[in-house]
Amino acid sequence: MKKRRDSILISCTNLVLPILLTLGLYIIIHGHLSPGGGFQGGVLIAGAVALIYIGYGFKKVKSGIASNTFRIAEDLGALGFIILAFIGLIGSGVFFGNILEKGTPGELFSSGSIFLMNFAVGFKVFAGISFLIIIMLSNLNKKGEE
């Protein structure tokens, strides 16, 4: 017997999902101006995978993106972060040195390279946590839960 998903749960998922994604991206973008940054925003965005599972079930999560894609994306995020560090070394003579012009303090583009590093960290954390969530959900699904 197939379990039916509750329409209220699906409606709440559809309502909260764009808010979760927008808030996570906002925290990554504004990480150098306020508490937060790449890690916190990446975890929020990865929470979307868990939310899709709650609302739609494992089949929907598995059909969306293959878990191997998240492993590759995590590697790309780490590689981007390391490349930025070496570009800083080449451009300024200091590992993780600033390569971009600093703007006016308090404005969005005021942190130089830290802005780009927040994106790299956010992408890596999003991919890594999403991969872990899919692994845990796969184990649940093997035990017959959904």
From TrEMBL:
Family matches, as PANTHER family: NA(+)/H(+) ANTIPORTER SUBUNIT B (PTHR33932), NA(+)_H(+) ANTIPORTER SUBUNIT B (PTHR33932:SF4)
TM region(s), chain numbering: 7-29, 41-58, 78-100, 112-137
Keyword Membrane listed: yes
InterPro entries: CPA3_antiporter_subunitB, MnhB
Keyword Ligase: no
Na+/H+ antiporter MnhB subunit-related protein domain segment(s): 9-130
Identification of the protein by name: Multiple resistance and pH homeostasis protein B
Cell compartment(s), UniProt: Cell membrane
This protein's UniProt keywords: Cell membrane, Membrane, Transmembrane, Transmembrane helix
One GO CC term, this protein: plasma membrane
Listed Pfam families: MnhB
Topology within the bilayer: Multi-pass membrane protein
Family from the record: Belongs to the CPA3 antiporters (TC 2.A.63) subunit B family.
Major subcellular site: membrane
Superkingdom in the source lineage: Bacteria
